[in-house]
Amino acid sequence: DGDSSAGNGSSGGGDDKIVMGFSQVGAESGWRTANTKSVQESAKEAGIDLKFSDAQQKQENQIKAIRSYIQQKVDVIAFSPVVESGWDTVLKEAQNAKIPVILTDRAVDSKDTSLYKTFLGSDFVEEGKKAGQWLVDEYKDSKDTVNIVELQGTTGSAPANDRKAGFSEIISADPKFKVIASQSGDFTRAKGKEVMEAFLKSNPKIDVLYAHNDDMGLGAIEAIEGAGKVPGKDIKIITVDAVHDGMQALADGKINYIVECSPLLGPQLMDLAKKVVKGEQVPPRVVTEETTFTQEQAKEALPNRKY
Ligand code: GZL
C-alpha cells in the first residue's frame, strides 16, 4: 500500500491512538477562533491525540512547530499555512520522516504536490467571484463610476491572493467599477480600522468597501462611523466569512452582503487523517461547502449559527 505513511505513533497516548501535530496560523479573527475550536473538539470526538500550536501569524513559528512534530514522530501533521510560499524544505523533511501532511484551510504554492496528501479548504477564488457578482448585480442599472476600496487579507496568503483575483475578474467586465485603493489589513479588526481611516482621509468619494474578512469589515465600520458616514448606506460593504459578529452587522444593515467561508473543518480533517495514517487513498482536494448571505437571510440564519 505504498509507503508506510505513519510515524510510529510512539509520542504518547498509547500505541493505538493516532497522534496529530497541528500548526494553527494564530488567533487573528473570529473565523480563526471558530476554526481552532472545530479542530480541537473534532480531535477529541475522533479519539485523536492532538498536539496544537498557535504561530501568532508568523511563518517561522509554523516551521518550528512542524519540525518539533517531526522530532516527536507524530503520525500525521496538519496545518494552515499563513502564507503560500516557503514551505518546500520543511515539507520535504516531513516526507523524509514518512509523516503525511494535510493542508487545512489555506494552500501552499509548492510545485511538488507529493509533499502533502490533500488540501481541505474553501475555494477562495470562488468566494471573491461571489463578492464581485453581488456588486455587478447591485449596480446593474447604474452608469456612474463606482469607487471601491479593498481591505486585503494577510499579504502573501492564499485567501488574500485568491479573493482579490476572483473579485477583480468579475468586476473587470465593467469599467465603471474602479478599485481606487487596496491594502492589507492583515485579517484583523484593528488593522482594518486603521487602513480604512487612511482610505477615508485620502479618498473623498468611496462607494463600496470589499473586505477579505468580517473582522476587517467590522474595524472599517468603526472608522466609517467615526468619519460621520453611515456604513451599509453611504458606503456599501461586502465581506467574507459570516462569523457571528459579521452576521449581526449584516442583520443590522451595516454590512450589505457576506460570502460565507466555513471554519468548521474539524470533522473532515479527522476523517482524512484516519485514512491517511492507514495509508488509504484520499482525494487531493476537498472543497468545503459554503453559501452567501443577504441582510434578510442573516436575520433568519443568526439564531441557529454555531459560531
Ligand atoms: C480563510 C481563512 C481566513 C479567514 C480570516 O479560510 O484562512 O483567515 O477568512 C482568517 O478571517 O483570519
TrEMBL record:
Annotated spans, Disordered: 1-19
Gene Ontology molecular-function annotations: carbohydrate binding
InterPro entries: Peripla_BP_I, SBP_2_dom
Pfam name, any one: Peripla_BP_4
Record SUPFAM superfamilies: Periplasmic binding protein-like I
Gene3D superfamilies xrefs: 3.40.50.2300
GO cellular component: cell envelope
Primary residence: other
Protein's UniProt keywords contain Calcium: no
UniProt name for this protein: ABC transporter substrate-binding protein
Annotated organism of origin: Microbispora cellulosiformans
